Structure formats: C-alpha cells, structure tokens
Records
---
Amino acid sequence: MSAAYVGPRTVLEIDLTAQTIRRYALTDADFADALGGVGIAVLLLERYLEARGLSAVDPLGADNALVFAAGPFAATPVPAANKHALATLSPLTGLLNEGLSSSHWSAALRRCGLAAMVVFGAAQAWTTLVIDGDRVVFEDAADILGKTPREATQTLRRRWQDRTLRVCAVGSAGERGVRFAAVENDGRQAGRGGTGAVMGAKRLKAVALRAHGSVTIADSAATAVLAATLKARTLGPKTAKYRILGTGANMRVLERMGQLPTRNFGAATFAGVEAVTPERARESKDAYVELRSGCAGCPVQCEHMYVRRDRDRTSAAASEYESVWAFGPNCGVDDLDAVLDAIGRCDRYGLDTISTGSAIAFAMECAQHGLVPSDAFGPPLAFGSAAVLAPAIDAIATRTGWGDTLALGVRAAAEHIGGAAARFAMHAKGLELPGYEPRALPTYALALAVCTRGACHNRAAAYDSDLRSPGIVQAAAERAQSTIDAEDYALIWDSLVLCKFIRDCFDDFYREAAALWTAVTGLPIGAAALRASAQRTWERKRRINARQGWTPADDILPPRLFEPLRDGPHHGTTIDPHEFARALAAYAQMRSQNTNAFLTTPRRLESVLGP
Amino acid sequence: MTVEFFGMARIFAGAPSLEIGGECLTKRELVRELAVRCPAMIGSVIDPATEAFVNPNLLLLDGRRATGDDDPFCAADRPCVLFLASGG
C-alpha cells in the first residue's frame, strides 16, 4: 500500500472579482492533519484569512471566502459518504459556519479531480461557475436569476446538454441576501447559517460540475470488504427508523419525553402533535402519498416526502423532523398540510427551515406582546395560525415589509424591533435553536452554548448522552467531558465525511473509521490520530471565531432557558445558572488542557440573567 | 400496566400501546412478555439472544426515567418503548 495520499488533492481557488483561477495541491501532511470535509474546509478557510491578514470580515463582503471540500470517501463504494462540506463566515452569527450537504454533487467534485474549491471576491454580474473537467467557465447567470435551485439546475442541464451536470445553487432568498438562505444541490441543502446569502452576496447563483474522471482508491480490495460490511449493517435494524419512518418519527418521542419545544420554547409538550407527526401522514394512506428519496450511494434513503393524493406529486415536501418541528409545534400549528406547504415553499426559495420557522415563531410571540402588528402578514400572526405561514415565508424570502426584518434572523430582528423582543429571540450566537428542549437535556445545553457555529444540534449531537441516560444529571466536569467527546466524535464524522444516521452501525467507530480511511486514502492512521485531528480542527474553528471577534462571553444561551419549564414530565426543570457556569468553566479548562487553544473563560451570566 | 410504543416498536406492535396485567415485572420479564405478545418485534426491536432491546431502542419509565434491569414495573406504571436515534 502506498504511503502517500491517494485521491484528488487539488484545490481550485477562484477569484470572482478578477475572474481568475489558481490550482495547487494539498500535501500528505494536510490530509493527515485535517482528513477531509469539514477538517479540510476549515483548514483552507483559516489559511485564506491568515494569508490575507483578514479579521472581522464582513460575511457578506467580497473578502469572505466560501470553501467547498469533498468528503474523502465520496465517489467510492463506502456507503452514506457522498458528502461535502462548506465553510464560510456566517451573516447570521458573524462567525465560522461549516455545513454539510450530500449526494451526486459531492461525488462529482472529486470526479472533477478536486479535493476542494475556495471561492472569494464578488462578481460584477450574476454568475454561474461551471467546472468542466480542467476548464472553469464564468457564465452569465442572468437567465436563471429568480429561479428555484431545481429550475436553475434544469436550465443549466439543457444549456450544457448534459443531464448529469451536477449543480449547487441558491434560490431567490440567497439572491436577496436573506441571512438564513440555504445552498441546494440534488435536492439536499446546506441549510444553516446563511451560506446561501454568502453566495448571493458574491453574485454567484450556481456552481455546476461536469465530471469526466474517476477516483482512485489506495486499496480497492480492502475498501470493498469494509464498505460491503458497513452497507450490510446500514440495511439492518440500526437504521430501520430512518429507512421506514424517517427523522419525523422523533416528533411523538420527544413530545412524550417532554422535550418538544413548543410555541417558541414556551412549552415542551404540544397537544396537537398527533396531527403534525409525519407518521400520521404515513398511516393515512388514503389521504397522502409517500415518496422516498435519499442521497446518491446511500442504502438508507432516509427522506420521506408526503403530498395529498389530490395534489401534484412534484409538490411533495420532505418531512424531516427539524423542518416539521419548526413550522409545527414551534409555531403552535397543528395543520400538517400547512406545515408541508411551508417546507416546500422554503425549499423553492432556498431558505433554512429551522431558522425560517423560528423567525416566524419569534414574530408570533412579538405580536402577542404588541411589538409586531398582528396583521403584519395578513392572516393573524399568532401561535396556532396555520394561515400565516405561507405569507410570512413569502415576505421573508422577498424581503417585503416585516419579512425584511425577520430575514435578518431573530437576533438582529430583535435588535431592530427593540423593547422586550430580545427575550423572545431563541438563538445562540445568532443561530436559531433547533428542536430539542435544552432545559431537559443538560449536556446538549452546554454543547449548544459552546458550539463554534451557534445553536447547531449536529456539531456535537450531545443530546445522545442525555437521551440515553435520562434523569441522570452529570457533574459539571463530567458534562464538560461528555460535550468535548461528542464534539470531537462529530468532527471526525464531519471530516471523513460520513452520514451520522449510520452512527449505530459501527461496533468500534474509531478503529473501523481509521481502517476505512487507510484503505481508501493509503495514509495509515489510528484511532488516537483521528481524535487528535478532531482536536486540531476544533482549535482552528475557535481561532477563526476569535479573528471574527468571538469572546467567551458569546458562549451563552437565551434567557428563557434559565426559566423553569411550565409543562410536561420536566415541569419545573430549568438550567441552573451557577451549575451552567461551572460546566462552562470545566469545559474551558479541559479544552485548554487538551489543545493549544487559548484559555477560554466563561462569561459572567449577569448580562443575560440580570445582576 | 400500559406499555406505550413509539417508532419502530409501534409499527411492529401494530398499536400505540399494550395492556399487560398481573404481577409486577422486571425489565427482562417485560421484554420476554413483549416478545410473546408482539413477536414481530423480535430481531428489529428485541434481541432474543440477550433478551434486551436492540440499540437504539430503549425502555423508559413514563418516557422519562431509565431503569435498572431488576427494577419492577407494576400496575400503575407506563413504560415506553422508544428509539433514541435522533437527528434530522
């Protein structure tokens, strides 16, 4: 077996302002250091900022860079691995945002001979980048402006007479700079943090890939055996939930456990849950058609889409848990049709469903307190109002009226509205909270607060340790260690990049993942080195945030989470501020000991809770 | 007692819940009872070799509290068979 990295190692650097390109190769040491996916994307973003001496960069300015980095197992037989990472500075948080997307585009990136792309500057006119083998074309995008990502893809495929052209694109929300606009490819989204707004600010409508090559694997025989074993497991009971029900099945479970954020985190149980759980649609075969979808090369095919039998099947909407939660329980809406319509609408505009639903829930609560007109979008802007979802989403995407305010994200919208609005803005570092109740999940609460991306549930998935040991409250140091373990573990998944939905399919993840990496890339690695890579990437993430002005004071949760829950099995439960401060301090101390990161110290909670 | 089912367990049970009468049961006895009453769960939800739930399925009392193997479930209890794989 070769000791050198086998696989695409070229970085394509594109200056949109000058319309110039440069290619260079990543070294074996780079891959050993950062693996791929998020690890490489973060490494390249930091190098970009360092090389230019940039700090406090405006995320929507030309100086911001957008890095696409392929997963190292993309375009190989490894299942659930056609994924790529996107790293940039977020217009929602002002800090690092690294997201993931999946499917054909990820594989095509490597089949174009690329490990990564770094795009910076801003085009004079709307542009589509077409990577056609060794050629890079800066194409006028005027004719696809205003189109949905799917429509833009179809137009580009017709123009290039290539049905296999792989396209990632922004919708009209990204064009208009909605700060939580998504980037879509192959029906999948890099949803969170406003990467779509960054593309829009660069007047970059789409990036299209024409892949002509194939990807070399270091040890094909070993890879085939490992991949076949993993694939067999992904078709077993460990992923049955995703295959048969989809993530929407979380709804009933979290409601029963009293951990379903409802009405903008005002409650943790939702009386209308049965009406909006996607399982209900699945069980109502006379009313709904279920369509299945998934990423290229994934046996799980987790996406379950539903549409009323009397409606056009192209309007079927994905019933992912977070999306249904955001427009359902979080807005107090128990109308599944309205929720599915809202999700489909977001996909067409290119909007992150979590942040969009959260912005509407925030506006509903503001209206309840007279801070926003109750007729801001026509139908009553109030919890439970299904009719307001569609016009509110339209207004956000088109940045019309109050929609323009909500398009800033809840943190900035609250500053704009003033008064008590900040109390209703459920975010961490500017990123809206996902659909798990942190007061009932103490490790997850800590992970949300310290997450470099803001309130992301996927950068630590620390709720796993809470959910598996409910009722057991860890001491601060244990909780901090659990959070660090969960962060490092997630970072390895995000750098390899493997879909976390198969995380129960490994018997010994670190050992088996190291074997996969070695077989595919030819670079020997062990479990300890994998973990060390994750720690280095975490350190880079913190350094990028520090360049952007992050301080430990930003590691905090919204004030509402320090108030007791008012319903459900966890009635009366809250995040104790002193206990939380101890956990933050323990986390900072442990991270400082385990890495070379500068010492982080927890903020004084008084600024949030009052003296 | 009433055993509540969620997710895959609910599909295999064919119902959202199941009434089990009689004496208090330990977790292992309850798993055995479920295997008899809902044999479709065997393999996907219940591991017959270990007489335990297949990860990530889990039994939580009242959907809230994990229990030890020898803790009894009695008439007023509502054990919930849940899966805890999350995400999405």
Note: Chain A has a mean pLDDT of 93.
---
Amino acid sequence: MLNTLSKIFCILFFVQTSYAQLIPITENELSDMSGQAFINVDRLQTAKNSSNQTIDTTKITLGLDIKTSVNADLLDLGNYERNGSAGSDIRINDFALGRIDSDGKIVPFEISDPFIELAFDTDATGKENLIGLRLGFGGAKGALSGNIESLTGKINIDIFGKAAPVRASTTWLNRGLLSLAGISDTTILRAGAELVQANGVANPVRATTVGIPNGDNLNCESGCGILTGVALALLGSNNCNVLGIDTCFPIDIYRTLEVGNKQANGSFTEAPGLFLSFLSEKITWEPGTQQAETGAFLNVPNGGLEVDFEQAFNGIERARTKYVDPYYD
Amino acid sequence: MLTHIMINSLRFITLAVLPILAHSDLIPLNDSTLKKIDGEGIGIILEDFVYQAGEQANGGTFEISGLENSSGQSVVLGISQFYVAGSNSNRGVNVIDNPVNLGRLQYPYNIELRDGNDIAITDKAVLELAAPKKLVDLSYFQTSKENRVERRFPGKQAASGQRVDRITGLDETIFSTRGSERADLGIRFDLEVGGTDAQSLENHVKGLAIDGSYVRLWGGEDRVEAEVNFNLYAEQIEFRACDSIGTNCGDSVNFNNIGIEAQLGDGNFQPVTFEVTSAGQFSFLVGSLEGKCPIGTTGGCEAGSAKLRLEEYYTSGPSTNIYVDNVRIGTAPVNTVGNFGSSTISNLQIQYLEVTSHDL
C-alpha cells in the first residue's frame, strides 16, 4: 500500500512542478475576433450598359499590396473568330511585369487592392444576368513589357517633345511649310495617340496600331510662331498622316511601357484604372471612363505613357526583365 | 515492519531523486539525421465522401461577418450551401447520394517525410503533403513553340531561342478517367449589405481534380520554407447570381475545361515563405532571384556557374501555365458575342513575389 502511495505521491509531486497549460479559447473570446477589414464587398450602381442604363455590379476588393517581377512566353486572351476573322483580343509575346536595372536590382511591378467586379443586367423578371466581370487593381505602377501582337483595350499615349524628329521625317517642301508656320526644330509639340486602325480610324478592337486618330491635331506647347496654332488647327491627322508625317505606328515597337502617374521629377506613383475584363456587352464601368468593349479588354491607365517624337517614330527599347535575357545576353 | 518502511522510504527517495539527476534534454533531430528516415509515408483515402453544409440541407448555416463595404456599412456573407460530392451533382442538387472517392489505394493523398537531396532541396528533411499522383508524370498541356528572332530596339541585339507560341490543348483524358475520383464542389453566398438582402452568388466547380499537387515544407534559417506545386483541372467553373433561395437564377459566366499547373518556388534556391505579423496581417513571399549571380554591365549575370544555374532556372525551372478551353457568358454559341474561345498564360516564371495584406 505504502509502496503504491509513494509512487503516486512522487509522480504527482513532480508533475506539479510543470506549469504549462493548453487553455482552449472560449467562444466569447473567439467572437471578439474581427475580420481585420481585409475584404470589402460593395454593391454598386455606377456602371452603365451599352444603352447607357445604370446596372448593378458586385465588387469584392482585397486589401493587398503586391510587388512582383514575372516573365511569360505568352499572354493570349480571347482567342476566337471575331466578325469572321480568327485571332485574339489580346496577344502579347514575351510578356513581363517589372524590370531589372543596370545594377542587377529588381524594380518590381507594384499593385495594390486587387478586386473582382461582376456586372449584372437585370431583366423584367428580376433575373440578374451576369454580363461580364473584370479583374482590376486600386493602383498600379511599373514596367509592362512585351511584343504586343493584338490589343483590345485602352492605351492612351501622350506624345510630347521637340519637333525636330517630326521635321526630319518629312520632305524638304513640307519642312519649309512648317518653318513658315513657325515650327522649328526646338518647337515643343504635343499629340494624343490611341489605338487606331491602319487608316487612322479610332478602334480599340484587336488593334495593331497606335496613332493620332483622324481629325485630331498636333498642338504647340512652346517655341511656337504666330501662325503655328492656326496652321496646326488646319492640319488634322488624316489617314495616319499630317503633311507627309506618319502619325500612326505599329504598337509592337513599344516594347516597355511605364504604367503609373509620372511625377515632375520623372518618378512614378501608382495610378488607378488598370483592369482586364471579359464582357458580353459594352460597359462603362465608372463615370468619365472609356467604355470597355466586348470580349477580353485591357485598360491601361492614363498618365504614365508619355513618349517623345523620336520614341513615337522608333519605338521604346525593351527593358531587361531576366538575369539571363535573350534580348541582352 | 520497520524494515518494510525503510525499503519503501528508500524507494521513495530513489524515485524522488533520480529524475533530478537525469539531465537529458529533448534535442531536436537535425536535418541530416531526419533526412535519413525513409518512411513510406501515410496514405489517406476518403471513400464515398460527401460534404453538405448550409441551411437548405440541415437547418444550419454559417456566416462571415465583420466585413464592410467602402461606405462603412456592414456586410454579411451567409453561406447557405457548401458541398463536395461526386461528379454530375447538378450544381449541388444531387449531393447526398452522389459520393466521391478522394484518392484510392494506388493513388492516395500522402503525407511523407522525404530526403531533400532526392528532390533538389539540399541537406534538408522535407515534409511533403501530396495529392494523388498523375497517371503520367508530365504536364497535361500540349504546346507548340516558335523561334524567337526579335530585337529589343532597332539596331540592337536580336533575341534568339524558342518560346511557347500557343497551348494547342489540354490532355482531356483527365476529364474522362478516374471519374469516381473527380469532385463537384460549390458554394452559395447570400450577400447582405447594411441589413438588407442583396443577392445570392453561386460558384460551382464540376469534375475537379488536383492530381500532382503538393506542398513541401522544411526548416529554413529562421522560418519554415516551402515549395508549392498546385495543379487544378476542372470541366467547368461557373459563377452566377440567383435569388436568396437559389431560384430565378440569371445567366452565368462559365470557364470550361480549365487547366492550371502552377509551380511556386524552386527548393532552397528560391523558397516560398508565409508569415503572420504581430499586427495580424499576413505576408506571402516567393523568394527573389536578386543577388543569385555576379552582375555584369547591363544588369545581367556574368559568365560562371551562377549564370549556368539561372540559365537552368529559366529553361526548366518552376513555371505556371493556365489554359481555359472556352470562356462563355450565358449560352452564347461559338464565335458569337459572349463566347470568347480559349485563353492562355504560358510559361510564366515568378522571379519575385511579395504579397502583404492591409486593412481597407
């Protein structure tokens, strides 16, 4: 008896010296846990359908900051026969986000607050018919590289710089006319370019060309003569041409595009508006924005895509995107 | 009697003192010891598995609350149905009598301790959690390649080599074999905004298989590191909206015959890590390739063994392929508005990815 008691006493005595306990969390404590506001869910009535009627959307936003550097052989979205022609709504070879600088540092592509938004067209019986969705980002900045073979979307490029490359690209006769109009090599001109067909008609569907749409003008910013404004106003772009100067360019010569809001010091901040949508009906997602086309549609925000006239004519050099990069090594 | 008490006292003293004299510690097994352990692992099979939750099925439901919209109103996601069943569940209608086998004896889910040296995770003991193996240990994607001869800018060096031109298709035997092991699953969210029922959102996945997926975990320098292989093959993923009892549903968006083969991380050359900060936020990292080689004048690798390792990474390292045979809204016929054909992301390689959460 004593033998058994001594063993039990001994075991109990020494067990008492350990203080660690696993204590379950009570329901009350658990119920105090909140969702950290990491997810927002919105029912919105800000989008409009192709008939300009307000439609409902449901938007789920995640509170995330993402920095990345990726490369892909191919991004090919919406590969089907459209209006009788085979092809893809969006097709980009050697696609990359982010770049590597000359010191070997990764300069990541940065995005924040990604969201998915579903668009509904409600019919007379109250059915909410899903007519499309988009994957978007609250903000984005960084280098987007690739050889763009086909693009359905919105890319507005601001062409801004000295007129010398413009003058150099035309005939001596037209150069004389430009001089008469007060446009010298140092005159600063500006023009807005967007996705167009080869004849200059603005068209965001399966575009292979970016340029000044028919009827739009070059604008003089500084160094202008007395007649410059009048002359430029008379010379709208027509069929991708102003005074013998090409105003449309293959989009695949722009190998790296900087997405974001360009600051005065040349740096970039995140810009809202980058999204990719799939739609069966044209939708204007937010007031004051360009209507998104049916099919796959890539919307690149304004503000960062600024090139000078030399870049407009010759393209933008692709940035290094790999440590062993066939475009460099 | 006295002798007996003496003996027992001695026993007591011995028992009391000996543990004090024992100085043995619990010493963690190091990686070189652990990696020599060669178990066959534990195979897990769930036969005739069905899961059904939600108010429709059993009177119970669960809610995700504490969410807000951008105006600060409360949002509640009531999950009124969540199911895992056999294929042909008809969007969760045919669940209880329609079980699925998750794994089978020849192809079970597996938990195994592996020698890292066998799987390119040098000198580490690796815990592997794996879904059933593929029938053939190859990618299910068929690709065609093209020669790349392009310049980064006029007059600059021409890039050569091959790249994927297109994914010509997905090996659809994945959708016609092992039918009893492919699951249907779905979820229905009843969305309530500011105390008002807004809509019911449904997501249904048909014929899902995750064959060949695995997570490998090992001890890094100061945290757990991982390598993730995530494969997903499904006959259809569907999104649609209905009224609160799942009727009067509108047109849906369908992603048909989907394949995702995502490889994240490359052993201890490029580990994946996951952390939760003291502020309750999480951070997910796919390690950066920065600093993996001596840098030349234009930012690339100088010649040497480190460059060869990176060449190997770009040639045959971890990559992600995504292919959707058809994206369709409603019942739009082929090559009409609303039927968007195939979509592909091919040979996507992540050199660096950092995802951190924050409050909205």
Note: The longest strand of chain B covers residues 224-242.
